[in-house]
Recover the amino acids of this structure.
């Protein structure tokens, strides 16, 4: 009877574990080394650091992670609507926080449970007078380009700059080198790999970051409320796995370049 009881208990644990499935939404554009590849398919190997960290955190709490690549503009909306339990990678925004759950601590977002920290930079033509001194942009003629749906567009617009969005860095660099925008604001991990290809040799990155932000896995509010302990445990494990695994993952993806 005791053996039978233990067997039934183990079956129950396995059923509980298999029933815990976290569906993650992520954008369909490549942002190396955190998201690898373009399109609707998630790579089975080297999918990106963010995917690997979310998978490790899910495993640590006994859940199966299922990743879905969707058009970037749909990630937040479909996560908020409940099609997915979570989405990534997103900086904290008070408006987003009305519809999506972030890891919090004493009424402030908890950066220790982030998935990444990334910096935005300003790119210009090499013959352009555009500059950034850490406080203001000078020498700008025309709008600043930004990737469609990225938070930097809203940040710059709030500071009074004209902003023009386009779908991805290649489109923005094309506009920049042909004089259709005065500068391009994006993360260095998004812009630098495109410059390294040599097609846009007329462009360069300024050395001082426009801003540095923490990025998070955000959860559907209803799910986060009904499964509060699970979600809190996921975020905690994400922080643990990031600190533990990030150095090795960075080396892995650098070696893969």
């Amino acid at each position: 009877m005791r053996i039978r009881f233990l067997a039934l208990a183990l079956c129950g644990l396995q059923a509980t574990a298999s029933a815990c499935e976290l569906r993650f939404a992520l954008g369909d554009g490549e942002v190396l080394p955190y998201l690898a590849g373009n399109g609707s398919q998630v790579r089975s190997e080297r999918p990106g650091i963010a995917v690997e960290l979310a998978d490790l955190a899910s495993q640590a709490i006994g859940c199966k992670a299922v990743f879905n690549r969707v058009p970037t503009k749909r990630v937040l909306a479909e996560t908020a609507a409940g099609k997915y339990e979570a989405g990534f990678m997103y900086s904290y925004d008070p408006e987003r926080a009305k519809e999506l759950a972030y890891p919090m601590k004493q009424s402030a977002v908890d950066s220790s449970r982030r998935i990444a920290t990334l910096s935005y930079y300003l790119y210009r033509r090499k013959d352009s007078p555009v500059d950034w001194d850490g406080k203001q942009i000078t020498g700008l003629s025309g709008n600043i380009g930004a990737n469609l749906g990225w938070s930097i567009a809203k940040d710059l617009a709030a500071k009074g700059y004209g902003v023009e969005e386009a779908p991805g860095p290649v489109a923005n660099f094309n506009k920049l080198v042909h004089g259709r925008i005065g500068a391009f604001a994006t993360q260095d991990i998004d812009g630098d790999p495109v410059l390294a290809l040599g097609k846009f040799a007329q462009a360069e990155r300024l050395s001082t970051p426009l801003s540095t932000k923490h990025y998070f896995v955000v959860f559907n509010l209803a799910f986060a409320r009904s499964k509060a302990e699970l979600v809190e445990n996921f975020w905690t494990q994400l922080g643990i796995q990031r600190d533990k695994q990030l150095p090795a993952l960075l080396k892995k993806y650098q070696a893969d370049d």
About this structure: The chain has two domains: 18-115+214-256, 119-212. The longest strand covers residues 116-125. The mean pLDDT is 91.
